[in-house]
Structures are given as structure tokens and as C-alpha cells.
Write a structure and sequence with these properties.
Bound molecules: 2-oxoglutaric acid, fe (ii) ion
Number of helices: 11
Largest sheet: 8 strands, mixed
Family: Belongs to the iron/ascorbate-dependent oxidoreductase family.
Number of strands: 14
CATH class: Mainly Beta
Keywords: Iron, Metal-binding, Oxidoreductase
CATH topology: Jelly Rolls
Strand order of the largest sheet: 1-2-10-7-12-5-4-3
GO molecular function: metal ion binding; oxidoreductase activity
InterPro entries: DIOX_N (IPR026992), IPNS-like_FE2OG_OXY (IPR044861), IPNS-like_sf (IPR027443), Oxoglu/Fe-dep_dioxygenase_dom (IPR005123), Plant_2OG-oxidoreductases (IPR050295)
Protein name: Fe2OG dioxygenase domain-containing protein
Radius of gyration: 20 Å
Order of helices and strands: HHHEHEHHEEHHHEEEEEEHEEEEH
Strand content: 15-25%
CATH superfamily: B-lactam Antibiotic, Isopenicillin N Synthase, Chain
Shape: globular
Oligomer: single chain
Structural class: alpha+beta
Length: about 375
């Protein structure tokens, strides 16, 4: 990709859409001023957090990818990943090959972006009607019609495939310095890691290494990178930074700072568990399409983010999603009389359309 030039500048009037709706408030400003939680963030009792942001669950698997290129070690890693996908739908990986320095650099850009004056961030405000393809800056959620907001600000970038990337590139912030170049480098490295993980997951299902990557569109697979910023909160027990949800794509990789907040729902114990931040690790969570491709053997994990009263938390989330024309549905090679298809087959763009219109009941993590 060509380096950023002055022509990548965009006029604010091109990108400020209906900011009243998608950026209803500056959560950062509220965090600095409010003594109590403003009413538009108060969640129903049913939704409120039940487990603390720093009450870490040490059972969530942590898997080292060291030696994955050697046949003997690869077998063990594939087995560990298969177990983690079936029992948890969420795990952490270390020794994954993405330089820690790059991860840190991008997290610094995340912080510097959210520290910009609100007028600068509003230049990148999200289009309200665009969910879930929307990109840009927003607060709360992508949904313009939310009654109750999430306690967060975020910036979503469309990164891959390359042709989308180049169009979307002009919408990426020019400030702070180095933002775009760092994001391009990170996007490339993560793409390689996603391919590796999809290969290991394919093998764990007894499929050829490139099976899932090809099923979700090969080189046309989509990648979005999201910066989340969760300011400290005056009454964290009454709200969430990110409401409970499953991710709708294939697989999600998350990097977080040392402040906890990501929680996954563990069906067997009917409890939320908090993921412990590990420096240099990625949290991997399986998304809806992998649950469906695996015919429910693997689970798309229900997750949420809680906030706390002392510290701001940041995460960087990479979503790998199928290309819009991918044919999705349970992998035929995995089906037999004892394991009939639990889900229909469909084109991914139809799934997105239903998902967006709220008609679709997405898998609730109850597989397995
Ligand atoms: O920031 C987190 O811990 C959760 C983020 C997340 O689940 C998402 O952005 O989809
Ligand atoms: Fe998520």
C-alpha cells in the first residue's frame, strides 16, 4: 500500500454524519465530570455485572504456539486448541509471532486517538445506518437506536481485503503521527496469525489445513480492527462497557492492556468468568460462523466487557469475517447419520442482513 499522502485528508463535512445519534455523548468527558452514572447508561438488573473486572478465572486455557512448525509439537497444539474450542470457545495464545513492540505501538495509537479533542474525533464519526459494516468513531454501540448505552468509545477500521482497505484507508485517522502505518503493519501480521489459527482449527476438526480459510473466502476474507476505550466509571456495577454478545464472524483476536474487563459466559456453571490480562498475549474467541461450520462442536462464546471505577481500559479487537459471498453452513465432511446438520446453509451476506435487522437468533454459546 502507498504511504499516506495529503490527498488522504478528508473534509469533515464528508464524514460527520448524524453524530447526534451515533456519538450521542463523549463518555470520556462524562467520566471526568459525572459523580453518578448518567441514566442513559443504567442497564437493567438482569444485564448488570455479577463478577468483578479483576476476579480472574485461571482455568481459561493459555496455549503457546512455540514450535508450531514442527510436526511433533504441532500435534499437541492442535489437540489443545481443539479442546479449548469445544470446552470454552475462548482461550489465550502466547508465542504467536506478532512482535510485542508492534502490539504496544498500536495500543499507544489507540490511547493517543481517544485523547484527541472531541472535534478531531468527530471527523471520523460512524454512519448510523451502517451497522454491522460501519466503520469510524462512535460511542456506546453501532446501533443508532439504543435506549441504554454502553460505557465506551470506539473506532472501527475496515482493513482487509486489500481493495476495501484502500477505499477505507482515507477514513483512517491521520492523527496521531504514525497511526496508519502502524495499523497497516499490524493488520498484515494479524492476518498471518488468523490464517495459522484457522489452519490449526481445521486440523483439530480432522479437515485439511486450508479448509476453513478457503470456506470463509480465502484471500477475500474480511478483517476489521476495532479500538475500544472504556473510561473509568462512577458506578461500574450498574453498567457495562460492552453488552453481552457473540461476534458474528469467524474468529476474533483481542489484545488488552493490563486492566481486566473481558468476561466470557460459562454455560456449565452459569457464571461469567473474567479473562486475566497477559502481557503480549492475544485472547482468541470463536465467533458464530465457526460454531456453525463445526456443526456446534465448537462454540461461539457469549462475552461482555465490564468497567471499573479507577482505571481506563483499552482493547484492540481484530475480527476475521467471511467474505460476503461465502457459502456458510455445517461442513459436509463433518456430517453423518449420528451428526446431522444442526444449522441451515446460507450465503454470509444474508446472515448479515438478518443479523442487522435483529430478526436472527444468533447462536447463544450453547453448543457442545
Ligand atoms: O474489549 C473487550 O474486552 C471486548 C470487546 C468485544 O467483545 C468486541 O469488541 O466485540
Ligand atoms: Fe466481541
Amino acid at each position: 500500500m502507498a504511504p499516506p499522502t495529503a490527498s488522504d485528508d478528508i473534509a469533515p463535512e464528508d464524514v460527520i454524519f448524524d453524530t447526534k445519534r451515533v456519538v450521542p455523548v463523549s463518555v470520556i468527558k462524562l467520566a471526568s465530570e459525572a459523580t453518578g452514572l448518567p441514566p442513559q447508561f443504567v442497564k437493567s438488573e438482569r444485564e448488570r455485572p455479577t463478577v468483578a473486572y479483576d476476579d480472574y478465572c485461571r482455568e481459561i486455557p493459555v496455549i503457546s504456539l512455540k514450535g508450531v512448525e514442527t510436526e511433533s509439537r504441532r500435534k499437541g497444539i492442535v489437540a489443545e486448541i481443539g479442546r479449548a474450542c469445544a470446552e470454552w470457545g475462548i482461550f489465550q495464545i502466547v508465542d504467536h509471532g506478532v512482535p510485542e513492540e508492534l502490539m504496544k505501538n498500536l495500543m499507544d495509537k489507540n490511547l493517543a486517538f481517544f485523547k484527541l479533542p472531541q472535534e478531531d474525533k468527530l471527523k471520523y464519526a460512524t454512519k448510523p445506518e451502517g451497522y454491522p459494516e460501519a466503520f469510524g468513531y462512535a460511542t456506546g454501540s453501532h446501533r443508532a437506536d439504543d435506549d441504554v448505552l454502553d460505557w465506551r468509545e470506539f473506532m472501527l477500521h475496515s482493513c482487509l481485503p486489500k481493495n476495501v482497505h484502500e477505499t477505507a484507508y482515507s477514513f483512517w485517522p491521520k492523527k496521531p503521527e504514525g497511526y496508519r502505518d502502524t495499523l497497516v503493519e499490524y493488520s498484515d501480521k494479524i492476518d498471518g496469525l488468523v490464517t495459522l489459527l484457522l489452519g490449526l482449527i481445521s486440523e483439530s476438526l480432522g479437515l485439511p489445513t486450508d479448509y476453513i480459510k478457503n470456506a470463509v473466502g480465502g484471500e477475500d476474507t474480511e478483517q476489521k480492527i476495532l479500538f475500544n476505550y472504556y473510561p473509568h466509571c462512577p458506578q461500574p456495577d450498574l453498567t457495562l462497557g460492552h453488552r453481552s454478545h457473540t461476534d458474528f464472524g469467524t474468529i476474533t483476536l483481542l489484545q488488552q492492556i493490563e486492566v481486566g474487563g473481558l468476561q466470557a459466559y460459562k454455560k456449565e456453571t452459569d457464571r461469567w468468568v473474567t479473562v486475566e490480562p497477559i502481557s503480549g498475549a492475544f485472547v482468541v474467541n470463536l465467533a458464530d460462523q465457526l460454531q456453525i461450520l463445526s456443526n456446534g462442536k465448537y462454540r461461539s462464546v457469549l462475552h461482555q466487557a465490564v468497567v471499573n471505577s479507577n482505571q481506563t481500559r483499552q482493547s484492540i479487537v481484530t475480527f476475521a469475517n467471511p467474505s460476503s459471498m461465502s457459502q456458510m453452513g455445517p461442513v459436509p465432511e463433518l456430517l453423518n447419520e449420528a451428526n446431522p446438520a444442526k444449522y441451515p446453509s446460507y450465503i454470509f451476506k444474508d446472515y448479515l442482513r438478518l443479523f442487522r435487522s435483529n430478526v436472527l437468533v444468533v447462536p447463544d454459546g450453547s453448543a457442545g
